[in-house]
Write a structure and sequence with these properties.
The model is unreliable at 1-7 and 40-51 (pLDDT under 50). The protein is of the alpha+beta class and 257 residues long. Among the domains are: 2-49; 101-181, Gyrase A, domain 2, CATH 3.30.1360.40. Helix content is 60%, strand content 11%. β5 (166-167) and β6 form a beta hairpin. The strands form 2 sheets. A 4-stranded antiparallel sheet has the order 3-4-6-5, with helices on one face.
């Protein structure tokens, strides 16, 4: 009987251990799911912020099997123009800090859940700076107005406290966003966000350089008919010079905030 009793106790202990392991496994599973969800959100945000990369990093060099054009190296001027567009976009965003006034760029990249997908606000509404303390969002489709309003409140509100966008009572396709005068804390939060935007801009510039240098490398390797290796090395140096110049401009922008 004593042996049977001990076996029963051991069985109960094993059951408790199995329950404990199952609980730990469930907790780990929930934690993993939460981590994956956060990662998906980060990737989704990254996709929105890098949405221009596909076109700005492609350099047509010709010389393909399906065309008769001679291969060409990317020009430093073309590379500079593409990089300048990146810098200009960032400068427009920075004006909201230096002038203490809102700009469309503060709103245009806000992710909005609409039409069963995530879209940048600029695809759904026009941003109008009515006054330094009043922004209007004119939705192209009135049915998305509520989603746009919620996205502005939840996303922009992280950097601009007390942001309370409201649907216009007379025009349901328009959202009115009263803009508070920036406090020191608000400015600090926005500057933090602009630092992130600067890093994205630097990444875009690096990708433009890489796209151009991938073509240049073909010339350096003697794989572009009619293009000398000397020309390829020269263009490669010019592109690196432009990249360095644009990098300094970005550093000056963030230092001036």
């Amino acid at each position: 009987k004593m042996g049977h009793h001990l076996e029963t106790i051991e069985d109960m202990a094993q059951q408790e251990r199995r329950k404990h392991k199952k609980k730990k496994k469930n907790k780990k599973g929930a934690a993993a799911a939460e981590e994956q969800h956060e990662q998906d959100e980060k990737e989704e945000s990254s996709e929105l912020s890098m949405e221009h990369d596909e076109t700005e990093t492609i350099f047509e060099h010709g010389g393909n099997d399906d065309d008769d054009t001679l291969p060409t190296l990317p020009s430093a001027d073309d590379v500079k123009n593409r990089m300048t567009n990146v810098v200009s976009s960032l400068q427009n965003s920075f004006r909201s800090i230096r002038g203490s006034e809102p700009t469309p760029e503060l709103f245009e990249s806000i992710p909005v859940q609409a039409y069963d997908s995530t879209m940048p606000l600029s695809s759904l509404a026009q941003v109008i700076i009515s006054t330094p303390t009043r922004v209007l969002l004119n939705c192209f489709d009135p049915s998305t107005a509520s989603a746009v309003r919620d996205a502005v409140r939840d996303t922009a509100g992280k950097n601009l406290k007390n942001l309370n966008p409201q649907l216009d009572e007379q025009d349901k396709s328009t959202i009115i966003v009263p803009m508070p005068r920036p406090s020191a804390e608000t400015r600090k939060n926005v500057v933090k966000e602009l630092n992130k935007m600067t890093e994205v801009a630097k990444m875009r510039i690096r990708r433009i350089r890489r796209g151009a240098q991938d073509v240049v490398k073909r010339g350096k390797d003697g794989k572009m008919e009619g293009v000398s290796k000397d020309d390829a090395f020269r263009v490669g140096k010019e592109i690196d010079g432009v990249t360095e110049e644009m990098g300094k401009m970005l550093d000056e922008e963030i230092d001036g905030v």
